[in-house]
User: Which sequence fits this backbone?
DNA sequence: CAAGTCCGTAAGCCATGACTTACCGTAAGC
DNA sequence: GCTTACGGTAAGTCATGGCTTACGGACTTG
């Protein structure tokens, strides 16, 4: 239902780079900012927006804030895209979620 | 590969409304603009951008330009989202495409 | 061919948002 | 307790882009 906000947030290339960094695993803000072409405060701002959109989640670890991808947020966008295949929607969602759980279980 | 452009394009609410109108079937520009809260030229501009991003396609029918959704463009975005499930990606894509064809064939 | 429809493009306005530097609170280490 | 890392927030700048009105070209119809 919040796919609109998520899409607006995913529109920014820097923000997508942040997400891609997090794809490899949860990281602190400094670690994320290292290697990105923008300043650390800029990354902080992006993380705030990503969090509001439900695309990342934050956990405190001492003085550090560890961010990680929140896949449910991405699923909402996926669901909207799937809706363009109309009645195939339900099949998509079910299969997708089932596949994911199966994969996870295997590890 | 062009998912970046597609995401930037999908970020705009009006543009998504245009797409949603087209979900019900191919339409001419006037028909699309009717019911939308913006002017017809604005719709034209959005259609241009949507076309550049590969999200719609255009066909001429006399003086009218008929636009329709180009699902392959949406699939690129889907594929990128799926990549956040890493190796589950291939399974998703295969299942999704297969499901779609099955559904289509049933009609 | 003249009048009317369809729609793309140009020009200009204005709001939004991405970025920077500067600053401040909080936690950790010597 | 001081100093140093960590990172969120404020303020200000600047570019981007979505919208409008005005215009012009292409096709259709009488």
Assistant:
């Amino acid at each position: 239902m919040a796919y609109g906000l998520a899409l607006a947030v995913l529109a920014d290339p820097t923000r997508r780079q942040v997400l891609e960094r997090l794809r490899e695993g949860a990281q602190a803000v400094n670690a994320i900012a290292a290697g990105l072409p923008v300043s650390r405060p800029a990354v902080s701002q992006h993380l705030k927006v990503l969090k509001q959109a439900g695309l990342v989640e934050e956990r405190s670890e001492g003085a550090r804030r560890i961010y990680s991808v929140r896949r449910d947020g991405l699923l909402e966008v996926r669901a909207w895209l799937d809706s363009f295949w109309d009645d195939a929607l339900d099949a998509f969602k079910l299969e997708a979620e089932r596949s994911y759980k199966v994969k996870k279980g295997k590890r």
